[in-house]
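Reopening: structure tokens for the zinc ion complex, inputs below.
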Amino acid sequence: MSKNKLDPKSRQTVTVDKDVLNKAKKVCGDKHIPLSGAIENFLDFFSNPWVYCFKCGKKFDSIDSELCPKCGWMICPECKACRCGLDERVAVAVFHMRRVYEDLLAGRVKES
Ligand SMILES: [Zn+2]
Ligand SMILES: [Zn+2]
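Re-run output (same inputs, fresh job):
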């Protein structure tokens, strides 16, 4: 039992669609990473999503960022960029990229 105490990893039983699981296992095999690592990575992102500033490229946690009251997007803590400074075509591109996050997170990256 003392071994368990030292090991911060825990074992959970989750039910995943067989096809989804098989596809994920194949991708993990191709990338040479364990499935548990992929799940852990995603859960880490899921519980505290991070983004890269589209202007300066700084990585920041959504939890640490503030939402711009005007555009509703996260303000980069480094350069203070948000959607407001973008021209319309870039803003549309960012908007659609952000939808990937929102699909993955089943909601907004950061709730206002
Ligand atoms: Zn920035
Ligand atoms: Zn803004």
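The chain has a mean pLDDT of 89. The chain has four helices and four strands. Marking as resolved unless the reporter disagrees.
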